[in-house]
Amino acid sequence: MKRKEITNMTITAIFIALLIVQTFVPNIGYVRILPALPAITTIPLTIAIYGTIMGPKWGSMFGLVWGLTRLIVAYTQPGDMVSLLPFQNPIISLVPSILAGYFPGAITKLLMTRDNTVKRWGYALSGAVTSLTNTFLVITLASLFFMNDPASLTMYLGHFSQGTSLFVILMISLGMNGLVEAIFTAVVVPMIVTPLNYVMKKA
Fold this sequence. Notes:
The protein has 203 residues and is mostly helical. It is built from eight helices and two strands. A two-stranded antiparallel ribbon has the order 1-2. The radius of gyration is 17 Å and the shape is globular. The two termini are 14 Å apart. The model has no long low-confidence stretch (mean pLDDT 85).
């Protein structure tokens, strides 16, 4: 048991270091194609891999670390206003991040006794769910918290017809990023997790 705990702590330390690099080194974790537009986030890949190999409990804690870094970035680093304003709200920073860390571990746990082919599809599903959970919850929570002052966000998202709900505007504006992230994560997670699990079993 002690050896397993040491292994878990070592893996966690490595992933936290990777997360910090992705967060604070420009264009690694948050890729900005155009300065005024929201960044494409590659961090869900890291979250999905960690949650998949470590399980829902550890994944949730790692998601919490991600959420805290988002909160710090929102207050300390200049960026697009659509990212800056929502993530200054601790709920928007933390809740999607924690659940994005929980779900890949939960999915993998459900498929633990299945054959390798099913597991690989499960890894792909874990990757997609991680990204989509983050995107959908950020949009939903931002819609709720900014519903009384939608103009503070919509003024940075282009022109929309009057009366369009903030949720719809955010889905149109941010949904493409989320879809790209989900496809990317779903494809890459099985490629990394499959050999990584093999190595961890041998250790």
